[in-house]
Design brief:
transmembrane helix, 31% strand, DUF6114, 9 strands, transmembrane, membrane
């Protein structure tokens, strides 16, 4: 009985560090949507456009559930899209798997979005792992983007000489300026991770977003160093070629629907951001930005 009890304790500890039940409901919802159009019962609608859509949405929900188990830090992004797919299944499939799959998906997405990680101080002694952040989810978060984007990055522009020499980004400002924009739209896949950037007061933890290009609308930047403040404003801002953003805080509304706030010490950004995702009403603390080319329209400098 002792080995069985140890396995149950490890399983319990693993389950408490991720939205397990939300992911399980999404896997069940996807499996139900996959099975309904393939059922041999004659009363079901024959496999057509609705059946093909059910196969695609069902597979996507299963993958979303597995992502919630393996990458719990991406729960906000994954759960929002799982909810959208579940609602969409009512229209494009056989009534969302005759309501069962759609309702399971909606419940699973809601549970995953509302889940919050347990504070370190509340972990029970035998169930704690030290450190949590260095466990399998962090390894998967680092390896998955490389595996998914290896073919896509083959034609990407070569890295700059400074990065190749290992010099890293330049020293950032002591107090990150604030940036607001009505629309932030990365082009192509974007990668996100937590890193550090050098400042006059020492290294600072930041969210690092890497992408091929990005478009911003109604761009505003304001320094916060105290004394005389400066600002930049532009109707549009285009970042092209090896774009890297170093942010201490990043908030906005995903697809203009769900508003979230990402930070290196709070809710981290999903490790892989698909090209069709955009954010509106963005407000960020930008420690640093690097890009090969910056194109602006209506740029003006403000001072106070």
């Amino acid at each position: 009985m002792l080995p069985l009890g140890a396995h149950r304790a490890r399983l319990r500890a693993w389950r408490r560090r991720r939205p397990f039940w939300g992911g399980l409901l999404l896997v069940l919802a996807g499996a139900e949507l996959l099975l309904v159009p393939l059922s041999p019962l004659p009363v079901l609608v024959s496999l057509g456009l609705g059946g093909i859509a059910a196969l695609g949405i069902g597979a996507a929900l299963v993958v979303a559930g597995l992502f919630l188990w393996c990458l719990p830090q991406a729960r906000a992004y994954v759960s929002v899209h799982a909810l959208l797919l579940s609602v969409l299944s009512f229209v494009v499939t056989n009534l969302g798997g005759f309501f069962v799959g759609a309702l399971l998906g909606i419940a699973g997405g809601a549970l995953a979005f509302g889940w919050t990680p347990r504070p370190d101080g509340e972990e029970e002694g035998p169930s704690r792992t030290a450190p949590e952040a260095s466990g399998p989810p962090r390894v998967l978060a680092a390896a998955l983007p490389v595996a998914l984007l290896a073919a896509l990055t083959a034609g990407a522009p070569p890295a700059r000489a400074a990065g190749a020499a290992g010099q890293g980004p330049p020293v950032a400002a002591r107090t990150p300026p604030t940036v607001t924009t009505s629309l932030f739209a990365p082009r192509g896949f974007a990668l996100a991770e937590v890193g550090e950037v050098a400042t006059a007061d020492g290294p600072r933890r930041v969210l690092v977003l890497k992408m091929a290009a990005a478009s911003l609308r109604d761009y505003r930047l304001r320094t916060r160093d105290g004394g005389q403040e400066y600002g930049l404003a532009a109707r549009s801002l285009e970042l092209r070629g090896d774009v890297t953003l170093y942010l201490t805080r990043f908030s906005g509304c995903i697809e203009g629907l769900v508003c979230v706030t990402f930070s290196p010490d709070g809710l981290p950004a999903p490790p892989v951001i698909p090209p069709f995702v955009f954010m509106t009403r963005v407000s960020a603390e930008q420690a640093l930005v690097t890009s090969d080319v910056i194109v602006t329209e209506g740029l003006r400098l403000e001072a106070s």
